[in-house]
Amino acid sequence: MVADKPYEDIPGTWIFDAERARAGYHLNQFLYTLMKEENRKAFRADERAYLAKFKISEAQREAVLKRDWNRLLELGAVVYALAKLAFTDGRSYQYMASQMTGMSEKEYVDMMLNGGRSPDGWRSKSERGRH
Amino acid sequence: MARIVAGVGTSHTPAIGAAVDNGKAGQPYWQPLFEGYEPAKQWMAKTAPDVLIIVYNDHVNAFDFKMIPTFALGCAEEFPIADEGWGPRPVPAVKGYPELAAHLIQSLVLDEFDMTIVNEMQVDHGLTVPLTLLFGSPQQWPCRVIPLAVNVVQYPAPTGRRCYQLGQAIRRAVQSWPEDLKVVIFGTGGMSHQIQGPRAGLTNPAFDKAFLDDLSRDPERLTRIPPIEYLREAGAEAIELVMWLMMRGALGPKVEEIYRFYHIPASSTAVGHIILESR
Ligand SMILES: [Fe+2]
């Protein structure tokens, strides 16, 4: 266990560290296969059958099928690999990010057009708790 | 001898590449961004470098999780464009400079920087979007490119100080190459942004402005920013800014700021751009 993890105190964020990388190894390797069009096709045709080829946990499998993006981050997916699942669905980074925040894509785009999310209130879990 | 004459810092947001590739660059959402890079394109055309060293990160495209090199130097003749999940970008393949890359490897390793040698590698938006921003959409890229990929995907990325020191070593290595070459180095990624979790969409213009200011005024201050400060203050993916410090380290002690541009948003990103000439 890596002892020093100051970043765990940042709210709404899952830093992809060595432990998450270990837990998410097969999940991320599955996501990596979606770089190839033939694999994207095979996955779209039968998601469960495609997923059965990888040594991923039941929880990871369910989260993929449900497109539960935040749960996938928690279970060790790294956002850049996860994006390949969004692309396979014909979606963008922007759509995936909006889903993670619980906003509609339109609300998310409007927030960004207004300058984005201020770090105030989002620096630490204790600061977040006060809001 | 070869000389590093200037450095370019720029975001490398994939949506910028997609906007150009899909003919959306003139739309109201994108037009101000591309207008902001016009002076930079003119500067680049006037500067006409022979070689670019592009410091960028791979986003799980060239490297899967079997191997994650911290510093990887592209030594190939040519670097094909990666299919990141929506088909490869319709841009020319990137031509390398294997002879100079081999020299860099030898010089850097003997200078005690333990580089990974990469002889086959696809390049992703981290490298191609900066080319698009600075050169537009030519039939062929006008100069050769040596990619230097930095791990910022799995925590921890190398520190800003280490990147800065490697930049200094790159300057020494380039200056010991006998051919008369004009080299420009790119530091890419950033600026403030977060694309994951409920905190996605975070930006921090004050942090970004101080970073841009201190690239010429006080780069030593920037090398002391600890990883946690990037993550907390500027977003989980803002750690990419350590790559700008490699660019800055390669410019020598004195630089002149030629141009800067800052714009929010491109997708989830606060876009920053700077041109520094070595003095
Ligand atoms: Fe990036």
Question: Your description of this structure?
Answer:
The complex is a heterodimer of chains A (131) and B (279). Chain A is mainly alpha-helical and 131 residues long. Chain A has a single domain (6-128), classed as Dioxygenase LigAB, LigA subunit (Protocatechuate 4,5-dioxygenase, Chain A). Helix content of chain A is 59%, strand content 0%. Chain A has helices at residues 18-23, 25-33, 37-45, 47-51, 58-66, 69-74, 79-88, 93-101, 105-113, 125-129. The model of chain A has no long low-confidence stretch (mean pLDDT 95). Chain B contains 10 helices and 10 strands. By secondary structure, chain B is of the alpha/beta class. Chain B has an 8-stranded mixed beta sheet, with helices on both faces. In chain B, α4 packs across α6 and α6 (160-175) runs parallel beside α10 (242-249). Helix content of chain B is 35%, strand content 22%. In chain B, β9 and β10 (269-278) form a beta hairpin. The two termini of chain B are 17 Å apart. The interface between A and B is large, with 54 and 44 residues. The complex binds fe (ii) ion. Residues 12, 57, 59, 126, 189, 240 of chain B line the site of fe (ii) ion.
